[in-house]
Specification:
Length: 153
């Protein structure tokens, strides 16, 4: 685990570079930075989480375009409203989740990270969750339950 404060500037630079790449390739959508590296004061594995929010009518076209730009990762979790990729050659390990705007995963990602950024108590809970061991058994389930609770308000 690393302190996110060490990575925020690098993560923002990755975001800017990928926005430029997608714009040059005319890939539709809004690319945003999420995850631990997006917020000072938390822990991160040292990776960058990007989220491409796409108009629902253009979701399939965006996913098809990204297949030529990024490497497909975690195809086992893909759904009709979620696709995941990895950015090859990025200075930090970087993943991209693609969702249609307003869809289940879009809401989950954007709402959770907005609330964590706005609420010091949630930020502390998230940091404690990471500190307890992102590699420990059951971590993904605990993280998912935390996200569920944050989304539910």
């Amino acid at each position: 685990m690393r302190r996110s404060d060490e990575l925020v500037a690098q993560a923002r630079a990755v975001l800017a570079a990928e926005r430029g790449r997608l714009r040059a390739l005319d890939v539709p959508g809004e690319l945003v930075l999420l995850g631990g590296a997006s917020l000072p004061g938390t822990l991160t594995k040292g990776d960058v989480d990007l989220h491409l929010r796409v108009d629902p009518a253009r979701f399939d076209a965006a996913v098809d375009a990204l297949r030529g730009v990024y490497a497909v990762v975690h195809p086992d979790i893909w759904q009709p409203t979620l696709a995941t990729f990895e950015v090859p050659g990025a200075p930090l390990p970087t993943g991209v989740a693609v969702t249609p705007v307003g869809g289940e995963h879009d809401v989950r990602f954007t709402l959770t990270w907005r609330r964590i950024a706005e609420d010091a108590t949630l930020l502390a809970e998230y940091t404690a969750l990471k500190a307890d061991g992102a590699e420990a058994p059951g971590y993904e389930e605990r993280k998912s339950a935390f996200f569920d609770r944050v989304v539910a308000g």
